[in-house]
Amino acid sequence: MTSKAVFVDRDDTLAKNVPYCDDPDKFHLFPGVPQAVKRLNDAGYLVIVITNQSGIGRGYFDEATLQSVHDKLKRDVESGGGHIDDIFYCPHTPSDGCGCRKPEIGMGTAAVAKYDIDVSKSYMVGDSNADMGFGKKLGCRKCYRVSEEYTFCDAVDDILRRRGHFLGSIATFFR
Ligand SMILES: [Mg+2]
Ligand SMILES: [Zn+2]
């Protein structure tokens, strides 16, 4: 059976962007993120972080440091009852010309293969053009662009409301 996912950018989507964050102690989720992730978990979505981390390719920090930041991310989400299913990152710089740095979709196709994801039932949430390009090219049902005014939690509300509408219209149809 296929699964469905919400792909989520990390910096300025789940957490305040600290440029080239190399320290878990500087990494802080936005308010409400763990609870919003839990709502997606409960609705049957895989929650998969998709993040460009060129600081590795630039030599600013190593993969072990990135891992420690991502361990903190997962821990903090879990402390609020949520669960991050996986984190994919691109370690390359723009000049590497790789196939995984967003807006390229290498991380997305890897996730789809790993979890047998139906992209037409999946969403992308991010703050940048690269995130929107990634979601569109991957074939997601819809992409949500977050900002200070429209947060990840708002996007989760809309994703789940959408699903509610769909189920509601089915119920009406069969009434
Ligand atoms: Mg971002
Ligand atoms: Zn890459």
Q: For the record, what is the CATH homologous superfamily label?
A: HAD superfamily/HAD-like
Low-confidence stretches: none
Beta-strand level of the residues, as a percent range?
5-15%
CATH class: Alpha Beta
Bound molecules: magnesium ion, zinc ion
Q: How far is the N terminus from the C terminus?
A: 28 Å
Question: What fold name goes in the CATH topology slot?
Answer: Rossmann fold
Shape: globular
Q: Which range best describes the helical content: under 10%, 10-25%, 25-40%, 40-55%, 55-70% or over 70%? A: 40-55%
Query: Oligomerization state of this entry?
Result: single chain
Rg, alpha carbons: 16 Å
Any overview of this molecule?
- This protein is α/β, with parallel strands linked by helices and 175 residues long.
- It has a single domain (4-173), classed as Rossmann fold, CATH 3.40.50.1000.
- Helix content is 42%, strand content 15%.
- The chain is built from six helices and five strands.
- Strands 3-2-1-4-5 form a five-stranded parallel β-sheet, with helices on both faces.
- Helix 5 links the parallel strand 4 and strand 5.
- Helix 1 crosses helix 3 (63-79).
- The radius of gyration is 16 Å and the shape is globular.
- The structure holds magnesium ion and zinc ion (ZN).
